[in-house]
Design a protein that fits this description.
Layout lengths: L5 E5 L7 H11 L3 E7 L16 E4 L2 E4 L3 H10 L7 E7 L13 H11 L4 E7 L14 H17 L7 E7 L7 E3 L9 E4 L5 E4 L21 H6 L3 E6 L12 H5 L10
Parallel strand pairs: 1-2, 1-5, 2-4, 5-6, 6-7, 8-11
Antiparallel strand pairs: 3-4, 7-11, 9-10
Length: 266
């Protein structure tokens, strides 16, 4: 592309997070980047939006007292510029698995971009050796390089782009990690834990195979996102936002067989 692309940069960890500052630095020299991020940590907000929110203009961009989706809406709907791509991150923990990625505010900012007709790129950083932890500024170097590369390549594809958004998970501490194009791992086994105070917690053990302290084998095949991260590879999962339906003719009997009393087939 001849002109510098316009990038809307957001996250769910907040405008002061190290990860978003790293991506801003990475993109500033090659794009016109505008930071629009939550004023505070809004992790796990999924695609939640707000009926009303306030915005502070700061030296580095716009701090939105709302969700990551609010940030995308404000950037695209209020700012007087046309954005070419939305970049979200870099998150300081993984966003993997078919049942988990849409719980992430980081990923859902990219999903919202897709619904609005813009390509989205969500980035997360993870240490497959020590597990989730805080990262120093210099540890985002691979994520920075990959972000610049993916923005350029995504925009070069233009209308030929075979995805609405990319969910990218970058391993920390790897020397020149390779890229693997992946699909989400499908795994869901919710469990209920009762706490001493009588409350319950519903959760699954999806990340256990990635935790070095947990003795659980990883059985995911090569080509899935969790396996790539475990192998120290950059997982890039291309996805669409439309909830595609099956061949509807195959389900015609579901409608035609309904009886007026609701008790089954006519």
């Amino acid at each position: 592309m001849s002109a510098r692309p316009a990038v809307l940069l957001t996250n769910d960890d907040g405008i002061d997070a190290t990860g978003i500052r790293a991506l801003y630095d990475a993109l500033e020299s090659v794009t016109d980047v505008t930071m629009v991020a939550p004023a505070t940590d809004r992790s796990g907000m999924s695609r939640s939006d707000s009926s009303a929110f306030t915005v502070e203009e700061r030296a580095e961009g716009y701090a939105v007292h709302g969700t990551p989706v609010d940030c995308v809406h404000f950037g695209r709907g209020k700012l007087e510029r046309e954005f070419d791509v939305v970049v979200s991150g870099c998150n300081d923990s993984p966003n993997l698995g078919a049942h988990k990625i849409e719980r992430s505010g980081t990923v859902c900012a990219a999903i919202e971009a897709g619904f609005l007709g813009l390509p989205g790129i969500a980035l997360s950083l993870y240490d497959s050796v020590t597990g989730s932890r805080e990262f120093g500024r210099d540890e985002y170097a691979d994520a920075e390089r990959i972000t610049r590369y993916l923005v350029r390549e995504t925009l070069e594809l233009g209308d030929r782009r075979p995805f609405d958004y990319l969910n990218v998970n970058v391993p920390a501490g790897e020397s020149d990690p390779r890229i693997r194009i992946t699909e989400p791992t499908y795994h869901f086994d919710v469990r209920i834990d009762e706490r001493p105070d009588g409350t319950y917690r519903a959760w699954d053990h999806f990340y256990d195979p990635l935790d070095p302290s947990v003795d659980v084998d990883l059985t995911d095949p090569v080509g899935t996102d969790r396996r790539a991260v475990a192998d120290g590879e950059v997982s890039i999962t291309p996805l669409f936002v439309d909830h595609r339906t099956p061949e509807l003719d195959a389900l015609e009997s579901l409608a035609s067989g309904y009886s007026s009393d609701g008790e089954g087939r006519r």
